[in-house]
Design brief:
This protein is mostly beta strands and 232 residues long. The chain is built from 2 helices and 18 strands. Strands 7-13-12-9-10 form a 5-stranded mixed beta sheet, with no helix packed on it. It has a 4-stranded antiparallel beta sheet with strand order 14-4-16-17, with no helix packed on it. It is globular. It starts with a helix and ends in an 8-residue tail after the last strand. The structure holds copper (II) ion (CU). Residues 94, 119, 157, 159-160, 163 line the site of copper (II) ion (CU).
Length: 232
Amino acid sequence: MTCSRLLALCAAVLLPMAAMAESIEGEVNFTGKAPTPGKLHREADPYCAKKPMTDPAVLVKGGKLENVWVHVTKGAKDAASVPSSVVSMDQKDCMYTPRMTTAVVGQKIQAKNGDPVLHNVHTYMGASTLFNKGMPNEKAAPIETTAKDEGMMKWKCDVHPWMRGYIGISKNGLQAISSDSGSFKIDNVPPGKYTVEAWHEKYGTKTQEVTVEAGKPAKVIFKYDGTEKGGA
Ligand SMILES: [Cu+2]
């Protein structure tokens, strides 16, 4: 086989693989003055009161914003398969843990109680209740559910008003949560044109149009300045 024929063969095999596995990556900048997290008022429950905590709704470090759900809203096909892993939302030290995560439509979601006290898990999509169920203590059986609709699944506890959790649910699975350095990376994005939305629980949504080309990751920078409203 000649060198040129070999190269053509390699290109024919490798290029389609590369074309199927691009990424959308970037970061979420916070350009305003970072608010100082306020103390949570957890005194009403003696167990929760033992651990003083501050409000984790807005986490800014070095001008980067954590816990922003970045997801493709237009231009993508539904996920080819639903992840078999179960998305877990725990209740630990009277806080939802993790604060924010993601699921794909059809994926199993499980609520657990790691505390020796009653939590009443109340989940919403928009203003509609998804389920509302008490978990008396850490011996309570997990609550099993399935991600049904695209959107932000909000978690509240009817006993402890400061408790908040978020699961971003997507049909296409092209989504990520910004890390404590504000960075995010959405993998397995085929080349194409997309609308990408960022959602923060206090500052709401920002959108950008993004074109992903074969062979190079698309870079996206979102910016919040702290004057925005419209999250949870
Ligand atoms: Cu609770």
